[in-house]
Specification:
With 155 residues, this protein is of the alpha+beta class. The chain is built from three helices and seven strands; from the N terminus they run αβαββαββββ. The chain has one domain. The strands form three sheets. Strands 1-2-3 form a three-stranded antiparallel beta sheet, with no helix packed on it. Strands 4-5 form a two-stranded antiparallel ribbon. A two-stranded antiparallel ribbon has the order 6-7. A hairpin with a 2-residue loop joins β4 and β5. The termini are far apart.
């Protein structure tokens, strides 16, 4: 730099530039193929425990929102395994509207079959009973929720 800028300049990364252009072209082609042959709405659809898209298919067309009746069910907070945290999402169901914390009002939902298989007796009429046994349901657990852009959030 003592004699000013170098006048004889050239591209030093031609190969990297070609690789980058090929990558951008490949990603553009992949995105175009995905939008033309696929259904982008599936990326934004909420899914219940049985794999039904809330408000997406005939089974759940009247139940467009996703609700977790037992958000802390079986979670191990001391674990470092990400799979343990996925237990929060294990029990989800499609509902017609946002449930309230009032356990006397019914929740209008499509209760997944998985609830009865994985936690028999704990869910009845789309409400979670944490201390349920064969003799009694025990107290119901429900939290109030509010509508978010695509999901129901706890109040």
């Amino acid at each position: 730099m003592q004699n000013g800028p170098v006048m004889n300049r050239s591209c030093t990364d031609c190969i990297c530039c070609l690789i980058f252009v090929a990558f951008v072209a490949g990603m553009t082609g992949t995105a175009a193929y995905g939008f033309s042959k696929g259904n982008p709405m599936l990326l934004l659809t909420a899914w219940d425990s049985d794999g039904n898209g809330c408000g997406y298919n005939e089974t759940t067309k009247d139940f467009p929102y996703l609700y977790w009746p037992a958000p802390n069910y079986n979670i191990n907070t001391s674990s470092t395994n990400p799979g343990d945290y996925m237990a929060v999402f294990k029990f989800s169901m499609c509902v017609k509207s946002c449930p309230t914390a009032d356990t006397a009002s019914p929740v209008q939902c499509k209760q997944p079959k998985k609830f009865d298989l994985d936690a028999p007796g704990k869910f009845k009429n789309c409400t979670y009973y944490p201390v349920a046994n064969t003799l009694t349901n025990g107290p119901a657990f429900r939290y109030g929720s509010q509508l978010s852009k695509f999901r129901l959030l706890e109040e």
